[in-house]
Amino acid sequence: MILRVLFFVTAVSGLNAAETLRVAAAANLVHAMTDLTAAFQDTHPDIKVETSFGASGSLVAQIKHGAPYDVFLSADLDYPQALIATEHAREDSLTIFAVGQLALWSSHAERDMRDLATTLRSPSIQKIAIANPATAPYGRAARQALMQLGLWTLLQPKLVIAENISQTAQFVDSGNADLGFVALSSLKSPPLAGRGAWQIVPASLHSPLVQGAVITKRGADNPAARKFMDFLRSDVARNVFARYGYDVPASRE
Amino acid sequence: MVETSATFLGLPTPLWQALGLTLRLAAITTVILGLIGLPLAHWLNTSRHRLAPFIETLVALPIVLPPTVIGFYLLVAFSPQHAPGSWWQAIAGTPLAFTFTGLVIASVFYSLPFAVQPFQAALRSVPIELLDAATSLGTSPRRVFWRVHVPLARHGVAAGLTLAFAHTLGEFGVVLMIGGSIPGVTKVASIALYDEVQKLNYPAAHAFAAVLLVLSFCLLLTVTFLQRRQR
Prior knowledge:
The complex is a heterodimer of chains A (about 250) and B (about 230). Helices cover about 40% and strands about 20% of the residues of chain A. Chain A is of the alpha/beta class and about 250 residues long. Chain B has one domain: MetI-like fold (Orthogonal Bundle), CATH 1.10.3720.10. Chain B has a two-stranded antiparallel ribbon. Classes of the chains: A alpha/beta (about 250), B mainly alpha (about 230).
């Protein structure tokens, strides 16, 4: 019985396989992707876009194990290059679509955020959330910034590690962490815009969050994947990224 | 990016730390579940209160509820921005999320039915005449319960405790939501294993999964033996 139901469910979901594009996107894109998908479907109403989110490293692990994604949007360039190196992605498809920004955020609007180091050192701060540096590029950038500020060892007891950059924001938003290193894009998105106080972490404190996308080996046979990559380079997509606080690479057109 | 670390018995020391933490969490949770679960099971068995069926259902809920539901509600409850998280903050001075105490509270909820349901069956299996005999000797009901009833049901009670212990070892979804993966504090075995898989560190993941598999098998085997003796 259960097998029959499973068969039915998989058969139904596979009906429009040719029209479906499966996107694996880094968690920092969780808000921008809604607008990107809507804009993409304005010009490609026949393509159904299904997006999964996670830490870039988690998504890479899934793709290496045959997860059915056609396109991968990473929070860095290393992970797409790792997929190219193991032939899980096509080298000629590598596209830089945005440069992310890291921000330190507090859900308390009255918190003084003028100086990063002073804010971080404040004794009233009990928990500071960062994304897992082992799998999330934004978490890696947060670690680099804390090391540059000479606070990494000192703040160790206060750090809480989130699964990905979305969970980092959620730890702060729910009030369970006092501060968090989050993606600026989260703070530009409807649920969090205007909430609390934040300060951009200067790009000089961490290696740039250059975000790259690739078409996976599986996606090479899906024409929709190529259309989506072209769309990522379009002015429409660049405007969406800019609206969410990303730096966008100079137009190549 | 590569974190080098010492090994002990072929496993990296952080994994031993996670395993030790998990065993400590499971042990503390099991003791608490014994103390509150036994009286609760007895009350559910004997009460004719209108609310008893509802409380029995509430106790059973974690069996079917997605762990993320429990995790989400606990995260909201733990928040120092409102009660009851703010009460805890006022008393203890620290928030509950991302602490070992927070995990213990979560585990007690999460493993409650796995202790209480075997307890109920074990307590029910003791012939009522034996208990009546003890009561007729003038012993207080509380004394009869802890000194006669529970010892007579000891195999089933031990099975419930072992099951609660084993179930706490397997906790994952709840911890993922309220733990914060802090080594030595909230990074339990299942989370440590998840992290190793995410890092594509398969040798460590394999070693760890094997330890958890063997441990869980031994615990369940104990439950099986205990329950066969109960019959």
